[in-house]
Design a protein that fits this description.
Elements lengths: L15 E6 L5 H13 L4 E3 L10 H11 E8 L1 H4 L2 H16 L4 E6 L17 E2 L5 H12 L13 H9 L2
Parallel strand pairs: 1-2, 1-3, 3-4, 4-5
Helix pairs in contact: 2-4
């Protein structure tokens, strides 16, 4: 079982290929995107769907952000007005700036670039309503993925490997 620690994984050892961050109002859109990507064999985390009851939402969010190769942020009228969504976008952006090898893809849903916070306008966005959305998202992810094309599980430590050799 892979656990997500508080330390940042190296670029070659992400738990998730992607994570999707969104306002609960946009759950159906997030579900469609997540299912499409998982059908392509990618490992992902969808914010409101994969949360585990009884865990800290704050801790989970920071751990998932650190463990994701790509953050897909759904920007809609609802999410742009929601303080929690704004905070998660800021954390993702901070992580992208601090960690080489991680990316953030803003997905616009019925919003114009002028409505999006200035700090996000420098990122190339995707328009969910565009007929080429799916192809462009898959191409964007393909360009970011390592040659193997999948998130790699965190390798066991040398101590764990040594224990397994001793118990054989």
């Amino acid at each position: 079982m892979v656990t997500v620690g508080m330390t940042s994984p190296s670029p070659s050892r992400f738990t998730y290929d992607f994570s999707i961050w969104y306002c609960l109002h946009d759950d159906s859109i997030a579900s469609c995107i997540s299912m499409m990507l998982k059908k392509q064999g990618l490992q992902g985390y969808a914010e409101h769907q994969d949360q585990v009851a009884g865990t800290s939402i704050l801790m989970t969010a920071t751990e998932v952000i650190q463990a994701s190769r790509v953050a897909i942020v759904i920007l809609s009228a609802s999410s742009l007005d929601d303080p929690w969504c704004q905070r998660v976008v800021e954390w993702n952006l901070h992580h992208v700036i601090e960690q080489e090898g991680t990316k953030m893809i803003p997905v616009y849903v019925d919003v114009e670039k002028e409505q999006v916070p200035l700090v996000l306008r420098h990122l190339n966005e995707l328009d969910y309503r565009n007929k080429f959305f799916e192809r462009r998202l898959l191409e964007s992810l393909k360009s970011i993925m390592p040659p193997a094309g999948r998130a790699r599980a965190v390798r066991p430590s040398k101590a764990t490997s040594a224990k397994s050799r001793v118990s054989r």
